[in-house]
């Protein structure tokens, strides 16, 4: 018998085994999630290269610095829409924020869910042992459609926008569990946006706003730098939102879907480090590495080294890693877990 004859049946066997396994897996995903798992390899993010830890606990010295965390329930978000926002854009972002709190309906939204993702954030405690709150609500909204401080904002004028909203809305002065969240539309430029940051959080100065209030800013990068701030829906090296290898955003909007992961990142960090004296790694409090920074670019199991981790793709090719309210799907980066001493997310496969 020739070698060919020996190999032939083995090859047939190998192929048929592989294809029947594939068919079984396909059936299962179609029946349960209507989705398949995949772990794409993408060019690395531009901004995170200097802070890339990729979940290695050997070099992570995340420590508690004795300051408060947002432990009172609920965490109240005071939302400022700066610039031009459509009703559907606002709805998408509000649906995400409203998906953070545990749902009253068991097993809906189905696992992996946004509220499961926030569980990692609520593992952080202050020195009294109080955990970060599990519930997050949108307490009040203000639309600054007149661009009260122009179409270019600096780090300081962002605080003036908050001062204006606190007076005009009026927003209460909520020191205890308030987050003042400024979102700027695609046509607004912000100091350091796209070059050094996609969003940031800090606290207001009494001299600017009259109070010390934790706040966060995130911009819609869709028209300005999607390859920087809407990763992985746009990837470096290709302008205009997309490029070979980029993934289809779950809600069909590169800028907004990218923004949601940055909002998630900033809310997680702000809640565990609202006055920048609680949870962070590194020796320098002026450039703290926080619980979101440690896991930037990681969305699932097996991430690192250019891979974003195992995420889901639905029948329309849209990429996501967690479910939210109203049947929404979102793609949100993982968060450092103080218990696992590793990056963690609700779609972990182990
Ligand atoms: C509070 O945090 C501790 C320490 O991480 C954790 O063991 C516990 O499960 C947390 N409780 C809640 C309700 O999240």
| Proportion of strand residues | 15-25%
The average pLDDT score comes to 87
Gyration radius, in Å: 22 Å
Biggest sheet, open or closed, and with what strands and sense?
A: 5 strands, mixed
Q: Can you tell me the number of structural domains?
A: 1
Order of helices and strands: HEEEHHEEHEEEHEHHEEEEEEE
Number of strands: 16
Keywords:
350 residues, 26% helix, globular, binds 2-acetamido-2-deoxy-beta-D-glucopyranose
What would a concise description of this structure say?
The chain has 350 residues and is of the alpha/beta class. It is built from seven helices and 16 strands.
Plain-language structure description:
- Pfam families: Phi_1 (PF04674).
- Belongs to the EXORDIUM family.
- The chain has one domain.
- The protein is built from 7 helices and 16 strands.
- The chain has 350 residues and is α/β, with parallel strands linked by helices.
- The longest helix has 30 residues.
Secondary-structure blueprint:
Layout: H1 3-32, E1 35-38, E2 63-64, E3 75-82, H2 87-98, H3 114-121, E4 136-144, E5 152-153, H4 155-168, E6 178-184, E7 189-190, E8 199-203, H5 206-209, E9 214-219, H6 226-229, H7 254-272, E10 279-280, E11 311-314, E12 319-320, E13 322-323, E14 329-330, E15 335-337, E16 342-344
Parallel strand pairs: 3-4, 3-6, 5-7, 6-9
Antiparallel strand pairs: 1-11, 2-10, 8-9, 11-12, 13-14, 15-16
The structure holds 2-acetamido-2-deoxy-beta-D-glucopyranose.
